């Protein structure tokens, strides 16, 4: 028989405290009834002997020390799961908000998840195609990887996230099941509507599961939303044998919610006011990506975070970089030059890229082309710096070629339309077209055998066309 506790001993913002509780457990969900009619959910965030501190998801409005009834549920926050969650939209704590009624659940899972046994993890292989050249060609996303996007306020990361959802696939020749779990934290209503309409109009809604926490929703919900999304992803990947791409936006909202809740609990702050356990909290989310040996399924993550003041050394991107396997960085100067997506190539990298590209995965020349494009674009920066000192007219012919290459690279390789879905072959061919702008002797990162096949290919194709004519 469930015991109800009458009244509270303390109220502090969204935190309440009750004394005299028996058998309360950390992370346990509690049901709260205010004035006998208004129902709220809470989660135990601290226990001291017979005293429990509870986070109330809907906030403590209308609550007083005498008008509440609190009941322990005996379980942590859980999510109802079945294959029917695909195509559905939920709020930040897993309640359906699409008007289609509750999910006909097969099982329920603890949203905090269980850590994957390192021994059973399989090394990530194979790539996920996003249709975006700067990602597929130079910072390739590998199944089972966690690859964040570092953005800034006002940058088009929402547009980029929507494009990835619309275009992502396992490649043209794959017949494996693929789906996307999308979680938005602290977004404005118009942004949430943008995502919903974009997915609906592009016809991808049926294989997307959405979790949406709006800016006016309780801050505490933001701490649960990414865990809801990853619980759904793990179920679809490891029990329904699907390859799942999880997009989390915006992790900065998650971290700021963590800071706000930590402050209200009276905890001692660390760097820039964030709690000292920010690293471990981020790790419990990011490390839920991976592949389990013997199971045909995977969880791949693209967390998106906005860097305060575009500062990549801020605690949120800094700690994220320690945990994840690379990063994709958006650049404000490229954005100012009307280049979309404004991906800054040089600070971006994918640490697992080398193991999921090349012959048998993409194309044999992929790694060589990527290395050469990185090298040549780095020299573009040197040429631009020199031009700013002595003037463009005084540059050598080679430096002028590098300036032309840089402009074409940013405009045609990095830059592409938000409806443009490029195959990996299209991306590599654009790369070769750019490399042909430079003398062959400058291409020192590519094996001569690959150069013989691809560098003169366009001229050979032109000669062949002339003979046929």
Automatic annotation (TrEMBL):
Domain ATP synthase A/B type C-terminal, first and last residues per copy: 355-455
Residues of the ATPase F1/V1/A1 complex alpha/beta subunit N-terminal domain: 9-63
Claim: Nucleotide-binding is one of the keywords in the record: no
Protein known as: V-type ATP synthase beta chain
Occurrences of domain ATPase F1/V1/A1 complex alpha/beta subunit nucleotide-binding (ranges): 131-350
Similarity remark: Belongs to the ATPase alpha/beta chains family.
UniProt-recorded Gene Ontology molecular function terms: ATP binding; proton-transporting ATP synthase activity, rotational mechanism; proton-transporting ATPase activity, rotational mechanism
Organism: Anthropogastromicrobium aceti
Pfam families: ATP-synt_ab, ATP-synt_ab_N, ATP-synt_VA_C
UniProt keyword list: ATP synthesis, Hydrogen ion transport, Ion transport, Transport
CDD domains: ATP-synt_V_A-type_beta_C, ATP-synt_V_A-type_beta_N, V_A-ATPase_B
Any single biological process term in GO: proton motive force-driven plasma membrane ATP synthesis
Function: Produces ATP from ADP in the presence of a proton gradient across the membrane. The V-type beta chain is a regulatory subunit.
SUPFAM superfamilies in the cross-refs: P-loop containing nucleoside triphosphate hydrolases
């Amino acid at each position: 028989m469930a015991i109800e506790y009458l009244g509270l001993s303390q109220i502090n913002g969204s935190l309440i405290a009750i004394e005299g509780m028996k058998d309360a457990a950390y992370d346990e969900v509690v049901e709260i009834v205010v004035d006998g009619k208004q129902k709220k959910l809470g989660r135990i965030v601290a226990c001291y002997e017979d005293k429990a501190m509870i986070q109330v998801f809907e906030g403590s409005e209308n609550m007083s020390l005498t008008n509440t009834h609190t009941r322990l549920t005996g379980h942590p926050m859980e999510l109802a799961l079945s294959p029917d969650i695909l195509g559905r939209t939920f709020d930040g704590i897993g309640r359906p908000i699409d008007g289609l009624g509750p999910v006909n659940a097969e099982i329920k899972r603890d949203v905090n998840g269980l850590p994957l046994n390192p021994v059973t993890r399989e090394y990530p292989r194979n790539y996920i195609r996003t249709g975006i050249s700067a990602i597929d060609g130079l910072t390739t996303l590998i199944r089972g990887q966690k690859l964040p996007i570092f953005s800034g306020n006002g940058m088009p990361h929402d547009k980029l996230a929507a494009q990835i959802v619309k275009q992502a696939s396992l490649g043209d020749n794959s017949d494996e099941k693929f789906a996307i779990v999308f979680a938005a934290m602290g977004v404005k209503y118009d942004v949430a509507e943008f995502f919903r309409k974009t997915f609906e109009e592009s016809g991808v809604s049926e294989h997307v599961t959405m979790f949406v926490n709006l800016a006016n929703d309780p801050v505490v919900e933001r701490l649960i939303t990414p865990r809801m999304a990853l619980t759904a992803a793990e179920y679809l990947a490891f029990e329904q044998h699907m390859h799942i791409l999880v997009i989390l936006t915006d992790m900065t909202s998650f971290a700021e919610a963590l800071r706000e809740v930590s402050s209200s609990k009276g905890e001692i702050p660390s760097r820039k006011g964030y709690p000292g356990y920010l690293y471990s909290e981020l790790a419990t989310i990011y490390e839920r990506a991976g592949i389990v040996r013997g199971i045909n399924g995977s969880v791949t993550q693209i967390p998106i975070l906005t860097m305060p003041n575009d500062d990549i050394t801020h605690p949120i991107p800094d700690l994220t970089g320690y945990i994840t396997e690379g990063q994709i960085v958006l650049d404000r100067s490229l954005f100012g030059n009307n280049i979309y997506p404004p991906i800054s190539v040089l600070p971006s990298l994918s640490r697992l890229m080398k193991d999921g590209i090349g012959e048998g995965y993409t194309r044999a020349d992929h790694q060589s082309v990527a290395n050469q494009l990185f090298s040549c674009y780095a020299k573009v920066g040197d040429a631009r710096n020199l031009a700013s000192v002595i003037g463009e007219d005084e540059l050598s012919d080679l430096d002028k070629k590098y300036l032309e290459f840089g402009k074409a690279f940013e405009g045609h390789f990095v830059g592409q339309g938000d409806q443009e879905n490029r195959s990996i072959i299209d991306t590599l061919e654009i790369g070769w077209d750019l490399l042909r702008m430079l003398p062959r002797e400058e291409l020192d990162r590519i094996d001569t055998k690959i150069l013989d096949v691809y560098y003169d290919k366009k001229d050979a194709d032109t000669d062949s066309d002339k003979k046929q004519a």
